Amino acid sequence: MKMGSKFSFLFVNVVLVVASINCMNVSRSNANLEDYTQFLLANGVARTPPMGWNSWNHFQCNIDERTIKTTADALVSTGLAALGYKYVNIDDCWGEEKRDWKGSLRAKASTFPSGIKALADYVHSKGLKLGIYSDAGYTTCSKKMPGSLGHEDQDAKTFAEWGVDYLKYDNCYHDGSKPQDRYARMSYALRKVGRPILYSLCEWGQEYPAKWAGLYGNAWRTTGDIKDTWESVISIADENNIWGRYAGPGRWNDPDMLEVGNGGMSLEEYRSHFSIWALMKAPLLIGCDVQSASHETLRILGNKEVIDVNQDPLGLQGRKIRAKAGLEIWAGLLSRKRVAVVLWNRSGSRAPITVGWREIGLSPYNPVVVRDLWAHSFVSMRKLHGLTAYVASHACKMYILTPS
């Protein structure tokens, strides 16, 4: 099959998945689901992959309200908020070990003395949104606070009353029931609170959530936890790659949060990490300390041209096209008949990588304008039917190709 046909096939698959979901709306419950999905999209929830920051990768349980406030301030002052990084997400360890006498979750008094509502008000005053964390089990993964299993309605109502905009829902210490059932219960609870809350299912990909999670939430983890290593990034990219046909506006595959700036990889490796996550339409959730981020880190996270690929309104996940000896071509369709391409060198030495127009769905006979997204320049083309670039070890080149 020609690559142009493969891209068409990918698009048709996405349309068919969405159409099949719509055809399932035969009951009142499913009709309500569709109404709720449209409600979220109308409010801008996950129309494109969510962008923001999450506390876990850098801070783990060492969080407090000052950290959240200063991070919100830093997102604004660095210009990252203006580029789309809107969600300020508190991960595990924000709550007391036990619920209050009414059975409600409560913020940990020693670290969040003002409470989550006041923190949400502060974040909202900066033009940003607040995210929070819970678990589809009896306790969260840290075992430091209660999960929401059996308290879904109560907790969803609490989150809405606090002004929460995003819920990351983990998968630890549950009762052994199917995740489809446990995650569905929180989904139904969120629909009833009258507030648009982005629902991110952190099921770790164990029961292939790409096949079912789009019925319940806006994003779902397709993999285990990311680590700040090259090996982790390439492994997770490959795991996430196979689920592309299930993603689209309002529903996104999530290969976990960004490690850019945490210090375990080189700048070239971080550029590759960010480029592939952007191409795969992954949620772009910063995982480093924004307040102390280096200029180089901010340049990677703040590359608007790469971000625009991630936020393209067509919403088709890019995928791996070809790989040999560590030299890979990843590509994805964009709006206005454009194609985004990443030439990724996973090998141990600098090497040329060539992509032909035919294998990414472009005609070899029509002129193509080539934009280098990391050099921020147009490429002078001598070869009319493809592109060759020398790529350093563990680095990538990223382009937008526009037929003219």
From TrEMBL:
Protein name listed in UniProt: Alpha-galactosidase
InterPro entries: Aldolase_TIM, GH, Glyco_hydro_27, Glyco_hydro_27/36_CS, Glyco_hydro_b, Melibiase_C
Keyword Disulfide bond recorded: yes
Signal peptide annotation: 1-19
GO molecular function: alpha-galactosidase activity
Family membership: Belongs to the glycosyl hydrolase 27 family.
Organism: Populus alba x Populus x berolinensis
An example Gene Ontology biological process: carbohydrate metabolic process
Keywords: Disulfide bond, Glycosidase, Hydrolase, Signal
Start and end residues of each Alpha galactosidase C-terminal domain: 326-401
Gene Ontology CC: plant-type cell wall
Entry's EC annotation: 3.2.1.22
Catalyses which reaction(s): Hydrolysis of terminal, non-reducing alpha-D-galactose residues in alpha-D-galactosides, including galactose oligosaccharides, galactomannans and galactolipids
